[in-house]
Write the structure tokens for this entry.
Amino acid sequence: MPTTDLRDLRIIYADDNPHMHKIVKTILWTMDIEQVRYCTGPEGALKEIQDFRPDLLITDWEMEPFDGLELVGRIRRSEDPNTARLPVILLTAHTSKKVIVQAQKAGVDEILAKPISVKLLHSRLIRIIETLGRRDMAGEASPSPAEPGADLTENSQIDG
């Protein structure tokens, strides 16, 4: 892995699955990322975005009372330009081309198929830092998310 220092990265992780919280917490810890707020759902994530002012959101797709795509939509429609441009990594077990296009249209920056690995999450964090920029560089327009069929897993396989 590259030696980019990620210690100052401020992340919100939203997922209603406690098991995934443990996995993601362990992965981020191995990258020395300690400034993380863990939310058990999308409503908590919206509140934390305002209070914590993160550099990045990592969210699951399937949550209650509304899903990760609705969360991203609410973020993108924010009147606060920093919130509206917040980079988002979406975690999902669904990797069909239709699902990927749906996520892109919602405004997701990166899509990562479950099960996730340290290597894949690290590469997405680096790509967001290098391509989309951190919040303090957010004055520039963000490029479009990865094309359908992009490398979502180590095996680069997409369903149907």
Notes: DSSP finds six helices and five strands in the chain. The first strand starts at residue 10 and ends at 14. The domain at 10-137 is CATH 3.40.50.2300 (Rossmann fold).
